[in-house]
């Protein structure tokens, strides 16, 4: 039973992840437009280039 629940809630293969939202309101869960790709790229690059606080960046 847990596997069926997991696949229903997490994986959702072969189905729309958020069918109750209009296509334009689904964000990254909807169609992958150029605008969404650009926003995702900017977010990933921003996350990867953030400076760590000094105490986290120091070697242990």
Write up this protein.
The protein has one domain. It is flat. The mean pLDDT is 76. The chain is mainly α and 60 residues long. It is 48% helix and 0% strand.
Keywords:
60 residues, 0% strand
Count up the helices: 3
Compute the number of structural domains.
1
Structural class: mainly alpha
Alpha-carbon distance between the termini? 44 Å
What is the 3D form?
flat
Order of helices and strands: HHH
Q: What is the helix fraction of residues, given as a range?
A: 40-55%
Main pleated-sheet profile: none
Low-confidence stretches: none
**Quaternary form:** single chain
Could you tell me the mean pLDDT?
76
The gyration radius over C-alpha positions equals: 18 Å
The fraction of residues in strands falls at under 5%
Number of E-type strands: 0
List the helices and strands and how they pair.
Layout: H1 2-11, H2 34-48, H3 54-57
Q: Would you summarize the structure shown here?
A:
The chain is mainly α and 60 residues long. The protein has helices at residues 2-11, 34-48, 54-57.
């Amino acid at each position: 039973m847990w596997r069926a629940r997991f696949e229903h809630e997490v994986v959702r293969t072969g189905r729309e992840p958020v069918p109750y939202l209009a296509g334009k309101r689904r964000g990254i869960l909807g169609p992958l437009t150029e605008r969404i790709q650009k926003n995702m790229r900017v977010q990933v690059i921003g996350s990867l280039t953030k400076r760590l606080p000094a105490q986290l960046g120091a070697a242990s």
